[in-house]
Specification:
Chain A: Belongs to the binding-protein-dependent transport system permease family. The complex is a heterodimer. By secondary structure, chain A is an all-alpha fold. Chain A has 13 helices and no strands. Chain A has a domain of 172 residues: MetI-like fold. In chain A, 77% of the residues lie in helices and 0% in strands. Chain A starts with a helix and ends with a helix. By secondary structure, chain B is an all-alpha fold. Chain B has a domain of 224 residues: Orthogonal Bundle (MetI-like fold). In chain B, 74% of the residues lie in helices and 1% in strands. Chain B contains 15 helices and two strands. A two-stranded antiparallel ribbon of chain B has the order 1-2. The two termini of chain B are 57 Å apart. The chains are: A mainly alpha, B mainly alpha. Chains A and B meet through helix 1, helix 4, helix 5, helix 6 and helix 9 of A and helix 3, helix 5, helix 6, helix 7 and helix 8 of B.
Chain lengths: 275, 343
Amino acid sequence: MSVERIRTAVGHIVLMFGVLVSLFPFYWMVVMASNTTPDIFSYPPKLLIGSHLFENMGKVLDNIDFFGSMLLTLIASLGVTVLVLFFDSLAAFAFAKYEFPGRNVLFGVLLATFMIPAQLSLVPQFVTLAEFGWIGSLKALIIPGAANAFGIFWMRQYAKGAIPDELISAAKVDGAGFFRQYLTVGLPVLRPGLAFLGIFTFINVWNDYLWPLIVMTDPNRLTLQVALDQLNGIYGTDYSMVMAGALMSVIPLIGVFLIGARSFIADLAAGAMKF
Amino acid sequence: MAVTSKTAPAAVSRPSTTAEKPPNKYKQAFPQYAAVSPFFILFAIFGAFPVLFSIWISFHSWDGIGQMKWVGLEQYHYLLSDATFWKTIGNTLLIWVLSTVPMLLLALVIANALHNATRLRTFYRIAYFIPNVTSVVAITLVFGSIFSNNFGLLNAFLRSIGVGEVQWLTSPWGIKIAIATIVTWRWVGYNAIIYLAGLQAISADVYEAAKVDGASPRQTFWRITVPMMRPVILFTAVTSTIGGLQIFTESRVLFGDTSSIGGPGDAGLTIVSYLYQSAFIKNQFGYGAAVGWALFVLIVLFSIINWRLIGGNDDERLTRRAARRVERRIAAQNAKREAADVR
């Protein structure tokens, strides 16, 4: 018994140490954002939270259009998320619950697209969007990502188990067409799955860096990540201000994550097990 | 599954007695085709076409604006003799090894501890997962300051315990270790959560049986846990290989305010950084496209290697071979017996 107890205690010590390592950079971000730059550069360095947080945040707002960038990022993230949820769940519903000629071939093609790294088509995608005249506009951030293979694959796995065939048959007897069946039978049952895919998509778009770096060429219309990088590029010597910007960019996202964290993590792990 | 064969519209348009002309099954499935079409249309425009187009671009010399000039395989010829390109492959692979190996080992340790812990489970999971949802740009800025040569926390610590300072962000190894640390920090928790799901999927009966047979904890780990975790380990290995070969943001942000995007001596220049630099800074679109194809070949190559190393095919192949051998022996015996009967 006591051996068990020691083992449990050791396990918790290991885990707690890991938690400290995991969370320390956030603490350090706050420390740097709340002290002045000379304080950070002093030796020994300040290790405690200071009192200059709002002053530093104010400097961020003076130097870049922080809220403009945040709004742009928010619109792009929400736009992609809404479209992905609709298109992916609709396709997943059809793939999971209906027989139609060529279904397996189409699904196979969809899975094959996983193999293509996004960077392979970076150059031609840019050229294509330039041809469309979309460079610098929100369309470039939203439309190409409006439906994705991962989401369809994941939602299909979910729909297969979650939607009973009897419900669909019953809806058919009532004279409901395919789209109506999707709305009345599919969507309500898929809601927990949509919550996961929604958070996952939102976080990915919000954090994306390479794509917006390339397509958002107007310096007055940058996403948060690119704006933050630029803040560092121009005012890199003002550490405390850059850190205040980093902190401000991270907080909303962690908020979104914490809302659904528990089931989000469980769903993600379950999804990985299905591959 | 059989629900689709009797969809409503067909039944309405013609009475069920007229069986002379079967309804067109493609026409009948129109709603389903419409439902799956958005992905395929978007993929055709923003996925398939660009991939084909990138082959075309890579056969040209092009600055993105002016006339495209056909150069055949010259970009690829140049690629193979380009020392910087080979350097980026070396950099990427080193960073990948420096991050993936500790990352997956630590994830296994954490998953094991999480599996045994009965309290604080939700807290641990969330705490370990938060790094993964945090923006790479913001966190790279934080790590950049921790690793800073002159004012960084890490060097301050090393100085205080009497160890000399390390030029983290200017020496070739320091740069790679710094980037690998950021990658590891972001992905350990993610992989641990996936390993944990794998551990929980192993039924307790198997362990019980091993205990009854008197297996030591080490034997149990290597003979039961690891083999049964194979698919999960393969998943994490493949995803971290694909992710590792595409590292870009960390090195780009770390050296954002320096003139070279790969840091001093290009020691942090990755394959994707090089692609970005070629196409979007130097406006060599043809060369950038060729680098993209090299990246694709590398990803396919390493995915196959992962598959071969970790994939479960060996066991199956052995079992199949053994089964065939038994079949052959039985067949031989039968043949002998038949021959004897004839006599």
